[in-house]
Amino acid sequence: MPAIDLNALNPEQREAVEHDGGPLLVFAGAGSGKTRVVTYRIARLIDMGVPPQRILAVTFTNKAAREMRERIETVAGGAARGLWMGTFHSLCAKFLRIDGRSIGIDNSFVIYDDADQLSLIREILKAKDIDDKSIQPRGLLTEISGAKEKLLSPEKYADRATGFFERIAAEVYKSYNGLLKKANALDFDDLLYYMVRLLEEREDVREKYQERFLQVLVDEYQDVNFAQYQIVNLISAKHRNLMVVGDDDQSIYAWRGADVSLILRFEKDHRDARTVKLQQNYRSTQTILKAAHEVIKHNRGRADKEMWTENQNGTRITLRMHGTEQDEAMAVV
Burial, 303: exposed, middle or buried (Cβ in 10 Å; 0-12, 13-18, 19+)? Predict the structure, then answer.
């Protein structure tokens, strides 16, 4: 394995990379070298003797997983072979194909995409003689997705349903799950939902994965939803070597279930957690960083931090007004 040059890191990056063990929270602002820190930490763990097959690294997109794997292989060489890395959904699909039978999931399941899901919803509405113009299929699908992200079964969701729309959604949710089961299919939310069930209900499976993964690293932690949060905590509970990296100031996915409060409560969940803030920016000018901070500092419930850079001040910011979003796009181009 090639030697890892830790001198290429700034003091805060190095602190995160060299963390001995236990829970670690890394606040990584935009352009602060976050990917380098995760890459170097994995390479160093392998260099210190942690078998790569006992390291679980979770990203949010396939592109990010590919890029990170390539960078790890550049730093660690062939020693990184066997590393478990991927998105929440791809990893959960893999685990469910291995152990899903123990909770009644056939390992030959197919995964339904958005078009398949909408087709099922429309089929159910037609069977129930509900006009899909008065009750939008997309809205129902969003509601069902939200229920699964909160780990609510059709029965639990029905118990909470109050208004007209929620009662319709509860009916459709139950029928929708029935059709998925009949087709031996899971949707993307099911991959997370049933992974939590697998870990909670099957002690033998939970202990197997807890023992296997000595180190767990999660990127873009500000974007996790409740189901993903549960999966991470269940798998890392034994060895407690959990590193999460993210930035509450960059949380933009609340509309798809992300809960930024989960990164902010990490230190409460793990009282012995170490926190490292990557605040040196390598991408932007000081003018940009100062303007951004003057806006973001007014957000309530954010971690206290301020980005800085050794880059020059750069040109002053100008404000331009445009009549339409198309005009604005053309001006940017």
Answer: middle
